[in-house]
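Handover notes (outgoing to incoming on-call)

Open items:
1. AI-2E family transporter: sequence verified, structure written out, both below. Nothing else pending on this one.
2. Nothing else urgent.
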Amino acid sequence: MVKFWGRRGDKVQPDKEGDSVAQAAYLDTHPDVVHVDLEQLDAETRAMYRDSREAAADAQEERAKTPAREFVIRAPFQLGFTVTLGVLVAMLFGAIVGELSAIIMYVVAALFVALGLDPVVRWLERKGLNRPLGIAVVFASFVLVIAGLLAIIIPMIANQITQLIKSAPTLVSDITKQPWFADLNDRFGQFIDFDGLLKMGQNFVGKPENWAQVAGGVWQAGIGIANGLTAGLIVLILTLYFLASLKTIKRAFYTLVPRSGRSKVIDITEQVTKSVGGYISGMVTLAFINSVLGFIMMTIVGVPFAGLVAVGVFMLALIPLIGSLMATVLVALVGLFDSPTTALIAAIYYLIYMQIEAYVLTPRIMNRVVSVPGALVVIGALAGGTLLGLLGALIAIPVTAMVLMIIKQVWVPRQELR
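AI-2E family transporter C-alpha cells:
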C-alpha cells in the first residue's frame, strides 16, 4: 500500500517509502512540469513521444519489482585506472574544443539564428504554406533585409567615419570653448588638469598614424573585414541547413537518449527551442526599434554622427538588461560634443524609452520567453560576455533560462520526494 503525505493543490505526494510507480506518477503530474503540445510535433516525433511514455511506464514497473543493488568496489586499481583515463580523455576533449572554438562559434551562432527564424516559419505553416516553401520565403526575406540594411548602413558608416577622422581634432578643441567645460574647469581644475587631458587627446586624434594603430593597421583591418564576411557567409549557410533540418536534428538528438527517458527530453527541448526562438527574434526586434527611434531622435536634436551611433545602439541593445543603459551612456557622451543640452535631451529620451520598452514593448514582444530573474540576467550576461564576447552575452540568457527550466521541472520535484 502506498502512503501519502501533505498536499500541493490537487496533487498528492507519495512518501519516500512509497513505490516507484507512484513517485513517477507524482513527478509526471507535478504542477511545475509542462508537457509538450503534441499538435505542435510532427508525426514521427509524436509517435516517438508516445512510445517513450509507454516505455517509461514499463521501466517504472520493472524498477519497482527489481531490488536496489549495492555499489561495491571490487577492483580498486581498475577503478582508479578508469577514472584517470576518463580525466585524460576530458582534458583531450577540452583541448580539441579550444582548437575548434571558431567553428563552434559559427555553429552556435547559426543555430540561434535558425531558432530565431523558426517561429516565423511555423507561423507560415499555420497559414497553409508547406515548410520547404516557408523556409525559402523566410530565409530569402532574411537575406534581403540584411543585404538592404548593409547597403544603406555601410556607405553611411564609411562616410561618417571619414568625417569623424577629419573633424575629430576640431571637435576636441571646440570642447574648450563650451561654457560647461569652462565651469567644470573652474570647479575642479585644481584637482584635474582638463586642459592637459584635452591637449593629449587632440595630439592623439590629430595624427593619422594613431588612427591606424587604433584600427590595428590597414592590413589587419582588411583581414578582419574579410574574416568577418567569410564568417557571415558560413553562418548564413549553416543557418539555412539548420532551418531546413531542425526537426530532423531534434529527432536525431532524441534517439541518443534512452527510450524510457525521451518523453521528458522532448518536453524540455521543445520548450527550450520555442523559448530561444522567441527570445532571439524578440531581442532583434527590440534592438531594431531602439536604434531606429534613437536615430530619429538624434537627427532631430543634433547628436553628431547619428547614423554611426545608431549602429552602436543596435549592437548594445542586443545585450540584455544592461544594453539599453550602455546605449544611453553612449548617446549622452556623444551628445556632449554638440552641447550639454543635446546630451541632456538624449539622456531624458532614453530614460523615457527604457520605461516604455520595459512596460509596453517587452511584455508584448517577449511574451513567450521564459522569464529569468534580473540578478541572473546580469550574472549570465557578464559571464557569457567574458567567455565568448557579444555572442556569449546574447546566448547567456537562453542558456540560463534552460538551466532554470530543468531545475524547476526535473530537480525540484524530485527534491520534494526526499
